[in-house]
Design goal:
heterodimer, A: alpha/beta, Rossmann fold, 5 strands, B: mainly alpha, 12 helices, globular
Chain lengths: ~140, ~300
């Protein structure tokens, strides 16, 4: 593993994008930053601007309105960027998959690097997904 | 010439100040984690962040902005921080004695990073960056006068000398200024000025993360943001070093005194970190009132007290 790649994997900054979410996954994601789970151990930080992000966390079902915003965010992000789909809605569409306004799961809009299923996924599951992403 | 270049680029300039500042930044994040009962990042985290931004990430230029100014601003920020760092650290580490009046030059050089952040943010063409830039401007207006009053108090205590080296040697003969009542007041005011200069939490409105998404830094990515980080690391080291040289008798590198010198710097950064972790962000109006009214009053009180010899 080269020096560049090592630095990149040791310092992933997260940007959180919530589609039409029920807020459950959002709470579980924020749980990962709390003292009990603490992803800063791996050098991860939650950043507020997409320009600083290395990982785009997407959760919630993506509807017609969110689709253009998600695409725009992905284009605004400095490459290389990893995309993680979190929760049943992000991975497959979940119970909204047949809905009128549903615009496809995340991987139909932008390329996805890791899927973390669950409704909502436990913080342990999110951490396990993160570790798999780091070892990829 | 080669000697000057060595001073500016390697020791005690860019490289040394940046490495020490990066470790201080790690220390700051680790203490923050401990305050919040977390475990905190690994030791080389600031280096990973810096090299990731410098080498791996793409640099995105704003479409509706002035691209040249946007890219030049971080370079000037690093330049200003390094120049100020050299003038502070040369007398402090006992390499050279500096020149008469260098304290005024340092005062001006220390404003360059904040100034360039404003210019860069306004050049990016982002409305949130403009909000951050205007807040930073107001903050500078608030703390600069206080900072100048603190320097005036120190100059008066040192018997009207404006050379950093003479102030340090005055303290080694007569004891550190922080040992007197006016010195303690100046120390407190100086700590708050550093807090505002570094944009740490009670005064972090320019880059309020949760409110205006990093404000002045919002459009920076890749290499320019790495340079901004570098300037911040350097500032995190040289401002506590400046405080120690002005009020706490400078540093001493003979034998066991090395430990004491390192502890001094760590203590000042610890104070900054604890203030940052135990306070909420204030509004810009409150910050202006805090500095222009209360901190200025305290600084003037300290000057009056030192005039009467306390």
């Amino acid at each position: 593993m080269g020096f560049k790649e090592h630095c990149f994997k040791k310092s992933l900054w997260l940007f959180h994008f919530a589609g039409a979410s029920c807020n459950n996954c959002d709470i579980e994601i924020l749980d990962c930053l709390t003292p009990r789970y603490d992803v800063e151990r791996f050098g991860m930080l939650l950043v507020g601007s997409i320009r600083h992000a290395d990982v785009l966390l997407v959760n919630g079902s993506i509807n017609q309105r969110d689709k253009s915003r998600l695409l725009e965010l992905y284009e605004q992000a400095p490459k290389p960027i990893l995309v993680v789909a979190i929760g049943a809605c992000g991975c497959t569409g979940g119970i909204f998959a047949e809905g009128n306004t549903f615009a496809g799961p995340v991987d139909k809009i932008i390329p996805v690097d890791a899927y973390i299923p669950g409704c909502p996924p436990k913080p342990e599951a999110i951490l396990a997904g993160v570790v798999k992403l780091l070892n990829k | 010439m080669a000697e000057q270049l060595f001073y500016f680029l390697i020791f005690p300039g860019l490289l040394f100040a940046a490495v020490v500042g990066a470790f201080l930044s790690y220390y700051d994040r680790k203490i923050t984690a401990w305050v919040q009962f977390r475990k905190g990042p690994p030791l080389f985290q600031p280096f990973y962040d810096f090299f990731k931004l410098l080498l791996v990430k793409e640099t995105i230029l704003p479409k509706y902005g002035s691209k040249g100014v946007f890219l030049a601003a971080p370079i000037f920020a690093v330049f200003g921080a390094t120049a100020a760092g050299v003038f502070i650290l040369l007398p402090l580490l006992g390499i050279e004695t500096g020149f008469n009046g260098d304290i005024i030059v340092i005062f001006y050089l220390l404003t360059i990073p904040s100034l360039t952040y404003i210019i860069g943010s306004l050049a990016s063409g982002n409305p949130l960056a403009a909000v951050g830039g205007s807040r930073e401007m107001k903050l500078i207006l608030a703390y600069e006068l206080t900072f100048l009053l603190v320097l005036a108090g120190i100059i008066q205590k040192a018997g009207m000398t404006i050379s950093l080296n003479e102030i340090i040697s005055f303290q080694t003969i007569n004891g550190a200024f922080a040992g007197s009542i006016s010195g303690i007041i100046l120390f407190i005011v100086f700590i708050f000025c550093i807090q505002a200069k570094l944009a740490l939490v009670p005064f972090d409105m320019p880059e309020a993360e949760t409110e205006i998404n990093h404000g002045i830094m919002i459009e920076y990515s890749g290499t320019p943001y790495a340079l901004v980080k570098l300037a911040k690391y350097i500032m995190l080291f040289i401002l506590p070093a400046f405080l120690i040289s002005l009020l706490w008798g400078g540093l001493n590198f003979e034998g066991i005194h090395i430990l004491w010198s390192v502890l001094k710097i760590l203590f000042v950064v610890l104070l900054l970190t604890l203030i940052r972790n135990t306070n909420p962000r204030v509004k810009i109006k409150q910050a202006l009132r805090f500095f222009i009214l209360w901190m200025n009053l305290l600084a003037i009180l300290a000057i009056v007290l030192s005039y009467f010899g306390y």
